[in-house]
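User: Reviewer 2 asked us to show a designed sequence for the structure in our supplementary figure. I'm pasting the structure tokens here. Could you produce the per-position amino acids so we can include them in the response letter?
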């Protein structure tokens, strides 16, 4: 069985006093009738940058997928902005609580086609493509504007991950669930994506994220608190 522990290293100058963006209560996850963890409880407050850590196989990805409403809740409850996630239309919820991992799936066409395609989905038809925002993000990533015209069939794995990040962040989500998103990237690209997430968060003080990584140095740079999934055995 796995329990949950939180260790905080928030400095005195950082204050998170608003209501939680996300709240997890009594959450449980099992695989083949064996519980990975039970009675998991924590809150994600506005502006927080939180690492989810633990040994391989302890269920970090499963936790993020459950919060993203990609896997069913087997025990317990998840609340987003004070309401059960079951109360939300799932596509709308997933546009505000976005799961990103290291193997993105892209549509055929150019990079910009991929970014614009999102707005053809029913859940996002009320929004408009923000090219200026994307160009600002590309500057942070040290990418030229003509990157948007490149076919996705001709870009690298790291560039595919950049497209996935841009596609998600353009929707202005409130929470990012980052599941080893830079694990297969070179250091320069990983650093650029860290900067991109930091820029996204600075745009709105309510935004927060959970990040898993086997790179402890990365987690020290980009998070200020940890949620530890630990085995009792």
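Assistant: Here is a per-position design you can include in the supplement:
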């Amino acid at each position: 069985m796995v329990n949950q522990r939180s260790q905080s290293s928030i400095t005195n100058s950082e204050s998170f006093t608003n209501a939680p963006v996300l709240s997890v209560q009594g959450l449980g996850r099992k695989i083949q009738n064996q519980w990975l963890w039970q009675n998991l409880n924590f809150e994600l407050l506005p502006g927080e940058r939180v690492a989810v850590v633990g040994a391989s196989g302890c269920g970090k990805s499963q936790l993020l997928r459950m919060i993203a409403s990609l896997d069913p809740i087997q025990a317990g409850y998840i609340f987003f902005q004070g309401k059960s996630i079951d109360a939300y239309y799932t596509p709308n919820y997933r546009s505000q609580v976005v799961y990103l991992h290291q193997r993105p799936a892209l549509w055929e066409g150019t990079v910009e086609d991929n970014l614009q395609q999102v707005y053809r989905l029913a859940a996002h038809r009320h929004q408009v493509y923000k090219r200026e925002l994307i160009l600002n993000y590309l500057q942070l990533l040290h990418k030229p504007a003509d990157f948007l015209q490149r076919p996705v069939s001709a870009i690298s794995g790291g560039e595919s991950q950049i497209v996935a990040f841009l596609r998600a962040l353009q929707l202005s989500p409130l929470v990012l669930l980052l599941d080893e998103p830079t694990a297969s990237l070179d250091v320069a690209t990983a650093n650029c994506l860290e900067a991109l997430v930091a820029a996204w968060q600075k745009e709105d003080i309510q935004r927060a994220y959970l990040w898993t990584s086997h790179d402890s140095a990365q987690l020290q740079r980009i998070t200020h608190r940890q949620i530890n999934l630990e085995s009792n055995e």
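For the response letter, you might also mention the following. The chain has a mean pLDDT of 89. Residues 26 and 39 are 4 Å apart (CA to CA).
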